Amino acid sequence: MIIFGTIAKILNSKEMLSYDCENCNSKGTVTFLFLARYFHIFWIPIFPTSKKGISQCSHCKQVLYANEMSPKMKQDYFMASAKAKRPITHYFGLFFIGLLCCMIIFIVYQNSVNETEYLANPKVDDLYKIEKNDTYTLYKVYEVKGDTLIFKTHSMSTKKYSGLSDLLKKYKNDYADATIKFTKDQIKSMQHDTNSEFGKIYSIKRD
Questions:
Q1: In the listed set 95, 120, 137, which residue is the last one of a domain according to the structure?
Q2: Which residue range(s) make up the domain with 162?
Q3: Which domain of life is it from (predicted)?
Q4: I need a labelling partner for 106 at 20 to 30 A (CA). Which of 16, 51, 56, 165 fits?
């Protein structure tokens, strides 16, 4: 079960201003209190949501919101609110999401660089994930002869791209004995032309 929701935390204001209470006439008992809310998952801060403040009398506990304060107190309230900063932990989720996005971008970029290298310099056992006629299968480089690549095709196929992971896990070495041949130009067309008669290359893996 995923536990999520919002939590409010009290923020410390750098300016500890105090005022006389108009309700109970106590001297210097009214101070500002600021609450910041953040969205959490399993109590881990993901991103900040809102920040609100009040004034409260420590004697009679009267609470005033900004629109109920005197003009002078309201002015001081907004100045104190601006200085009541959220702790950096409230932004943990945003930092994590940003880091995750950077990692994904780097992985995608690195895979693109690697695949360009694999296409330029193919090697035996390079694994090609192929889509053809609305099915997905695997081609493994069996031999490289000049500009010609000779493949062994996997004996099974799947209707979903994600199904290729199962083929790799459960039927890793289940390839047909017969081979097929493609020139490097044909391989390039399979990478860039989604309507290539030879199929489409989704990715290239090298162990």
A1: 95
A2: 110-205
A3: Bacteria
A4: 165
**Mean pLDDT value of segment 180-203:** 84
- The torsion angles phi and psi of 68, rounded to 5 degrees, stand at -105, -5
What is the per-residue pLDDT for 60?
93
Q: How far is CA 70 from CA 16, 27, 67, 73, in A?
A: 18, 16, 8, 5
115/91 same-domain check: no
Nearest C-alpha neighbor of 48 from the set 11, 97, 93, 90: 90
**Cα–Cα distance list, 15 to 69, 76, 83, 160, 203 (Å):** 17, 9, 8, 60, 58
pLDDT recorded at residue 13: 64
Q: How far is CA 8 from the centre of its chain?
A: 25
Does residue 15 surpass a pLDDT of 70? no
Residue 89 lies in a domain: yes
